[in-house]
Amino acid sequence: MFVDLAWAMGQPAAGAEGQQGLASFLPLIIIFGIFYFLLIRPQQQKQKKQKEMITNLKKGDKVITVGGIYGTIVAVGSDTFRIKIADEITINVRQQAVSYLQGEVIEED
After folding, report:
1. Chain-centre distance of CA 11, in angstroms?
2. Checking CA distances to 39, which of 11, 30, 54, 107 falls within 20 to 30 Å?
3. Which residues, 6 or more positions from 73, have their beta carbon under 8 angstroms from its beta carbon?
């Protein structure tokens, strides 16, 4: 009885297995595309904008560090800034420690 049913179903058409394999990966491809456009790409753009801002900083710019210290750049080194935070008080910070320019609009995505 079951043998007749199995013979009646027959073999899948040639190439149907390949289409089935692609169809099973299609949801993963779509999810990766969504993650790319909603998470990865905006983060890359934000990092690019941050790096560009840091490379364009010069003496006299008023900045805010990652730690929340407000100051004015008084010297620019190869990978550090000397920032004046009060009268007669200056500190050295790494370039990556500068978070924002004072007065710049902070855009959160």
Report:
1. 48
2. 54
3. 57, 58, 59, 60, 61, 62, 63, 81, 82, 83, 84
In a domain, 10, yes or no: no
* Pair 32, 65 in one domain: no
Note the pLDDT tens digit of each residue in 13-65: 555 555 677 788 889 999 999 999 999 999 999 999 999 999 999 999 999 99
Mean pLDDT of 82-88: 94
* pLDDT-wise least confident of 11-20, 54-63, 64-73, 76-85: 11-20
Q: What is the DSSP letter of 79?
A: S
- Residue 7 inside a domain? The answer is no
**Distance in angstroms (rounded) separating the CA atoms of residues 96 and 90:** 17
Q: 107 with 69: CB under 8 angstroms? A: no
φ, ψ for residue 36, nearest 5 deg: -60, -50
Quick check: 71 pLDDT over 80? yes
Residues 65 and 99 in one domain: yes
Q: Is residue 4 part of a domain?
A: no
